[in-house]
Structure formats: structure tokens, C-alpha cells
Amino acid sequence: MILETYGGAGFVTGSCHILRVNNKTILLDCGLFQGKEDKSGENTRFPFKGEEIDYVILSHGHIDHSGRIPYLIKNGFKGEVICTKATKDLCEVMLRDSGSIQEMECDIKNKNRERKGYKLLKPLYTEEDSKRALKYFRGIEYGEKIKLFQGVYIKLKDAGHLLGSAITEIYIDDIEDGEEKKLVYSGDIGNNHRPLIEDPSKINNGDYVIMECTYGDSYHEKEDYFKELMKIIKKTIERKGKVVIPCFSIGRTQEIIYILNNLVEKEEIKCKVFVDSPLAKKATEVFNKHSSDFDDEAKKLLRQGDNPLEFKGLVFTESKEESKAIRKYKEPAIILSSSGMCEGGRIKYHILNYLEEEKNSIVFVGYQSPGTLGRDILDKKEYVKILGKKISVLAEVHKVPGLSGHGDKRILLDWIESFQKKPRKIILVHGEEETRLAFKKELEKKGYCVLSPEKGCTIKL
Ligand SMILES: [Zn+2]
Ligand SMILES: [Zn+2]
After folding, report:
1. What ligand is nearest to the CA atom of residue 214?
2. Measured in angstroms, how far is the CA atom of residue 65 from the centroid of ligand 1?
3. Are 458 and 13 in contact (CB under 8 A)?
4. Label partner for 264 (CA 20 to 30 A): which of 25, 40, 135, 328?
5. pTM strictly above 0.90
6. Where are the alpha helices (DSSP H) in 81-152?
């Protein structure tokens, strides 16, 4: 069998690896290039034809892993996309959203191009393309061993990174050399002890491992994120203020709802919680539908009759009118909205409404890139510009970084060292080049055989 590394080799986005085995071709993920890797039009090119691909095995719903599937289908793919059932449902939400973002961004660019008399662009794919793409998805259960074709079976195990995220075990009877081999694709490996979802599964064995290394050279700081968040909320409510939390609609929002549920059930807080994002509402429905994938703590709550994503006072707002009406609510409240870095979406309006009052708190739970509105507020600039208005930063500003979705160096090493026998080869992907080389050295010191292929490398396994 042959493995070709394509996206996510030496960098983080655009995850996609091509596996050619027993006369068929499988893609491991088919993600969107984002940020600097997207600049050169990389997203519009594939080093293969869509109809050449028989299967896509999708590790999880994040767009840097799933985001080019609708485009692959537009390019002639007619096979099956295999993932967990939760990933399939999350993709319905995420890919449709991604399609509508593609359309929106294309419209903005075209307005400019029209003025200059340039040829108009077409979006990579539309929301409608994403809707069509979902018909190709097949959701399977964790632990279910399924046959893809002659001599190739797969099994998915929980990766603990996002609801539905999976580590893929591929069992191969290679007709080329008559050997039996097992390939493991780690996908994104999660962090331990995160709310709602399980810790990453350990894998017993494998001959070849394609492994992520996002944080292969650093350790996460240990912080008590729940306690910190609770303190800020309690103080803000006592002084009759609003707590505004910018956060991503899928994953982080449900995590915060879970924490707030805990506080409400224990009667530590009594106020309304507005989740102002239609995307978050849909994603929360998917989480509820797949509560069988939750960790033991969340399942215990469910058994006791407490749905951890539902409590008295929790309000999801969908329409623009409902969103605007939040401003008229005079009592203390908590508002969750996206985007996480305040660059777009409804959060901007909430920041505009509440930033100029000292009794309010703005709480950042994720990383804020330099140059974003979120970062400017976090850096406590005297003024920020929102929707053309100059606004003073008077509310309290807090940074409470939640637990990272990725395991750090310790977790990655524990994961690979839990294999009963050292794999024959580890192929490192999904990491910035410097990090990848540092992690490679670390593994080599422990006696592993490690490859760090460039994009476009062909490896015979
Ligand atoms: Zn991910
Ligand atoms: Zn990723």
C-alpha cells in the first residue's frame, strides 16, 4: 500500500492523506486549508480526480478536516464518507455553515471585482452543495468493525477532541505483498478531563501510525477554569451586570452551557443565560441527540434526570428580532455568542451594548489572534472601533482560557507509549514544522522510527 501525504503535512490545516491499497483509493480526511495555507488558491486544487476516490474516512467535523468534502463531490466523487453518527450530524450543521460563509465571502470579493471590471468568482461550494454532500455520508458506531472492500476493514474509537471525533484503525490484508498490517490514523487527539466528552481512547497496537502533533513541543498550563469562571459570573451578577462570553458555537459553547448547568442546579447562580447563535442551537441539538457519546459524569447527570445542556433560564435565540430583544432585558444575565474572536457574527452587537459600562464583564475563553477585535479588548485598549463607532473599554475584561481541545506533549507521548509494541513507523502530521521536528526528536530518543513527510511525499508501507 502507498500513503501520500497531502494536506496537514508540516502545517495544521487542510488535513488530507491519500491511501492506495488493494486497487482502491481512500482519503483520510478532506479538510479546508485556512489562513496562510489558503492564500495561493490551494483549496481549488486536488492532486487527484474526484472519481478516483472510493472512500473518505472522516476523523471529525472540524472544517480543517471536513471542509472540502462538498468540493470533492462537485469534482466527481461518488463513494462513501465514513464517520461516526455524531460527526455526520455535526457536519450537517458545520458544512452548511461553511457553504454559506463561502457564498458570503465570494459576494464580498465580487462586489469589489465588479467595480474594477474583473471576472466574477464562484464560491468553492454553496450551502446547497453542502446539503447535497450529506447524502454521501454514512455514520457508524464507535467500536463497530466494518468491511470497506476486499481485505480492508475499519474501526473508529473515540478521540476525545470533539463530540464524534475518532481515531481510525484500518486492518489491511495487502494483496500486493500478502502481508497483514494495521494502520492507525489518530485524527486530532483530545485533551483529558474536558466537560461532556470522553478522554482520548488508547490503542493497543498498530504497524503504522499517522499521528497529529499540534502541541508536540509544549505542555498546557493547569488552571481551574470552572472556579475562575464562577467567580467572575457571581461578582458580575451581584453588581447587576451582564457577563458577555464570545465563543465558538460548536464545542466550546456546549462546554460552557454544561458548566453553567452545574452552577444553576446547585443554585450558585440565578439569572438568565442567552445563547445567541442559531448555529449553537443546532449544534446543541446534535449534542443532545448523541448523549450516548458523553463521558461518565455527564451520563450520570442524565440518569439522575438532569440534562446537562438544559436548565431553567437557558434561552436560545434564533431570529434577528430575538437577538435584538436581549438588549431590552434589564436584569443581570449571561450572554454567549459567536464569533469567538469577535470578528463577525452577533457578538459584535453585544460587545457594543455592554463594553462601555463598568458593571459588565467580557470573558474570553479562547485564543485571540493579534489584530482581532477580541485581542484589542483583551489588551485593554482605551477605545475600540465597533461597527464604525468608537467605544471605550470600561467593562471588566477577563481571560479564562478553557481546556484546549488538543492533548499536549504529555498526552501525545502517553498515547503512543500505550501501544503494546512500538509501531514500525510513525508518520507525523498536523503540526507546524518546528513543533513537528521537536516531537520527532523526542520520539526518536525513545527508539521510535519516525517520518515527517512534506506535502506530496509518497511512502510505501
Ligand atoms: Zn479538530
Ligand atoms: Zn485539526
Report:
1. 2
2. 7
3. no
4. 328
5. yes
6. 85-116, 127-133
